[in-house]
Amino acid sequence: MSSASCGDKHLVLCVDGVPYDAVERLQRQGVFQRFYPASRLVSPFPSMTNVALKELFDAAPPAGYEAFYFDRQLNRLCGGASNYVGDRASSVHVRTYHHFIDYQEPVHYEFLVYVLPQEIYRADVQRFLDAFAASDKPVFVAYLKSTDGLIHLGGQEKLDWAMRWLDDQLLELSEMYHGGLRMTLFSDHGNYMMRGRRLWLKDHLRHWRYQVGSRWRSETSVVVPEFGLVGFASIYTPADPAALARELAEVEGVDFAIHRCEDTVVVNSRTGQAVIVHDRTNDRYRYQADDADPLELAAALRQLKDQGRIDADGFVQDRDWFEATVDHHFPDIVRRAYQAMSEQVVNRADILLSLQDGFYAGHVLFDGMVELVATHGSARATSSTGFMMSTDRPFPPHLRASDVPAFLPIASHQ
What we know:
Blueprint: E1 9-15, H1 20-28, E2 39-42, H2 49-56, E3 68-71, E4 76-79, H3 83-90, E5 103-104, H4 109-112, H5 117-134, E6 139-144, H6 146-176, E7 181-186, E8 197-198, H7 201-207, E9 211-212, E10 221-222, E11 232-235, H8 242-249, E12 254-261, E13 264-269, E14 272-279, E15 284-288, H9 298-306, E16 316-317, H10 318-325, H11 333-340, E17 351-355, E18 359-360, H12 364-369, H13 381-384, E19 385-390, E20 398-400, H14 410-413
Parallel strand pairs: 1-6, 1-7, 2-20, 5-6, 8-18, 9-10
Antiparallel strand pairs: 2-19, 3-4, 7-19, 11-17, 12-13, 12-17, 13-14, 14-15, 15-16
């Protein structure tokens, strides 16, 4: 690709799993200097790629939170490794996030990155650069998933190396365009950069005499899809989930459990219970915590009250909640918890658990294959806070994933 053939182009690049704190620190060290200062980007809960990219591209909901999910209509576990291929093929008919992406890694890279992390990352970046060079689209959208695998295995050290090397590649690319290339970078979620220990969720369920399996057979049946090693868990049961949610909230390693009760979302933790109500007409939420505060929002509520932001019915406008809790250790949690129990995925869980930093759940097979030094999935800021930045313009200092489509030139691209 010669510079003479390069018109004005816009590269939109998503790098999987890169936390805001890492990018902000690297910018202070002189990396990504062509970009405006990075903004914090709050991912939905669970802080997983399927869920986040649905919001980031304003796409159709994915089938599940991960590649492996429970389909209550078919009454069986579906997906798995083959789901990656199926999701990409289905984007022809359904506008999942795959529909908006011009480049993403080959499916086998998803697994090889856990064997040869640096080699696969380099290959992924080179394939993306080759695809970009071969494209005549004015807007090119790429998704580097290999960064997440590299972070899981290598933590902060390998993340710093990967982002510095990416910056070098983007600098070379930019110089070829003599200032005619705009670039927007963002991530889908963050990562907690420490080794964790497993939450033996199924063992707890069996101890309580629930029938754990791959389908519902009775009122005591429970299905727990397990794929990656992550900081959340989804539970499906044909029974009223209220009692089980209360039991799960008491388990060591669980921050809180949420379930839906009619039009409300109930939050349970070891400290007690609260209810979240959404007034759709006026886009406002009420966090009703009479004798407990499972989401630890007392300070935010005092601030909102002092500012006169709580109305007579106890509701707070959606954006006021965001501003008051964006720096909380559960950022933007009132909206995120409610949306997690709404239309976030096609096959919504009956109960979602957010795990404490330092705990993970997932398929036991992966425990023997890899030793993770970073995880994500929980509602905590460590897992939930990605970044967004551009060479073209500054963004607001704090963003939700759902804010991002308004800043991307995707509509004209498709």
